[in-house]
Design goal:
alpha/beta, 7-stranded mixed beta sheet, 15 helices, about 15% strand, globular
Length: about 425
């Protein structure tokens, strides 16, 4: 999540191109109705950035108390997650364990359902009386963490209890982008911590550190110019201002649930194009990145594979051009031309795709400048490779989530829905 690259700082994927409007900034939050709210900084580490990925650390912060718990996932962390969070799954004898790659210590873990239940217990204590509700403050440009948390809660039938405790999610990224747009170029956690909190060496590897920073950033921005940076922001007036600021910039839980449903529908449409794009995703890394961008353009425009197949069968190339002409509003001309070429070559086997390089075998794969073969090519970790059979909750029909404009770390998994939001 923060910045060296903004992706790493904000706990998300690679930062989007400047021409792309980030989900956190796409629309201003509607806010929550007036009421009694408790504020909690919150974040979590995951094994990847897909809906089928698991939580491996969940953390929360208030000035009086903190909560953090590592979770033993069924699957391994993908290469991007291992680098970002500095943890990995190792196998010692017949047991799988979570290990800190900096201290080389084995971490104490719980199962995902146990950790989520404990997290809800902790939130209930922080909530206080029955009339109060919690607003979870986090910092992320792509609004992935709330969706992934809600998906996990749905999986374990904990959503109803969660909605009784939590009123909504406040993204400090959107708040900072609005309040600091004239003073800073980037609103990543590291930059904001350095500028607003005088924290020159903020660590963003741990979910607890990010949760703390997100809380402190909202606290500072709510104070405005009334106090010096870092000067006692825990007074009664500051707390009241902070609650009002967080309430105004929060999204209700039902809004994030709607976003989850919309994302699944998008992925279902995207998955219909598997016959076309699955072979292309076995190409080299730059080609995979380009393919995921094109695939998302089609899904967001509402196209289905059957529509384009029928258009080609009826009028061939002219039919494709007519169907894809509607993309001119949301896509560049070069994107449309490339999509037409890809589909024309797919439906006409006599034509060979242009610009796609054959995938090199591991034996002949060139190494990077660091002498490695490209960690992002696969998702192998030091533990035994996990399979869908290892998890009772993960099936081949799980939905992936994420930003398809980014690189997929490996060929598409054999799930019913396409992979999005894989780390770089």
């Amino acid at each position: 999540m923060a910045m060296v690259s903004e992706a790493k700082v904000n706990g998300g994927d690679m930062e989007a191109p400047s021409t792309e409007l980030l989900p956190a900034l796409a629309e201003k939050p509607l806010g929550l109705p007036p009421g009694k709210y408790s504020l909690v900084g919150w974040d979590m580490d995951t094994t990847g950035r897909r809906l089928i990925d698991e939580i491996c650390q969940i953390a929360a912060f208030t000035p009086k108390q903190t909560y953090t718990q590592y979770i033993m996932p069924y699957g391994d962390l993908n290469p991007g997650a291992r680098r970002r969070h500095n943890i990995r799954v190792v196998t010692v004898g017949r047991y799988r364990m979570l290990k800190d790659t900096i201290t080389h210590k084995i971490l104490k873990t719980k199962s995902e359902i146990s950790a989520l239940t404990d997290f809800l217990d902790w939130l209930e204590k922080e909530k206080g009386d029955s009339e109060s509700k919690v607003i979870l403050i986090y910092h992320e440009p792509r609004r992935l963490s709330p969706i992934m948390l809600l998906e996990a809660l749905i999986r374990y039938k904990l959503l109803d209890r969660f909605k009784c405790i939590v009123a909504g999610f406040a993204d400090s990224y959107a708040l900072a982008a609005d309040k600091c747009k004239t003073t800073v170029k980037s609103v990543s956690l590291r930059v904001l911590a350095r500028v607003l909190l005088d924290a020159d060496s903020l660590s963003v590897d741990s979910a607890l550190d990010r949760a703390t920073a997100a809380y402190r950033i909202v606290e500072h921005l709510a104070q405005g110019e009334q106090q010096e940076v870092g000067a006692g922001g825990e007074g009664a007036s500051a707390s009241k201002d902070m609650v009002e600021t967080a309430r105004a910039w929060a999204r209700p839980v039902h809004t994030e649930l709607d976003a989850l449903v919309n994302l699944k529908n998008l992925l279902e449409r995207q998955n219909t194009f598997r016959p076309v794009f699955a072979p292309l995703l076995r190409a080299a890394r730059p080609e995979r990145k380009r393919v995921t961008q094109l695939r998302r353009i089609l899904a967001e425009a509402g196209f289905l594979y059957d529509q384009l197949r029928d258009a080609w069968q009826e009028h061939q190339l002219t039919g494709l051009e007519k169907q894809l002409a509607s993309l001119s509003v949301s896509a560049k001309d070069e994107d449309i031309k490339e999509l037409i070429e890809i589909f024309d070559c797919h439906f006409d086997p006599a034509k060979e795709p242009k610009g796609l390089k054959p995938r090199l075998s591991n034996r002949n794969r060139p190494t990077s400048s660091a002498g490695e073969t490209g960690e992002a090519e696969g998702s192998t970790s030091d533990s035994q490779k996990s399979s869908p059979q290892n998890s009772p909750n993960k099936t081949s029909n799980d939905v992936s989530a994420g930003d398809t404009s980014q690189i997929e770390a490996a060929p598409e998994p054999m799930s019913a829905l396409a992979t999005q939001y894989n780390e770089v």
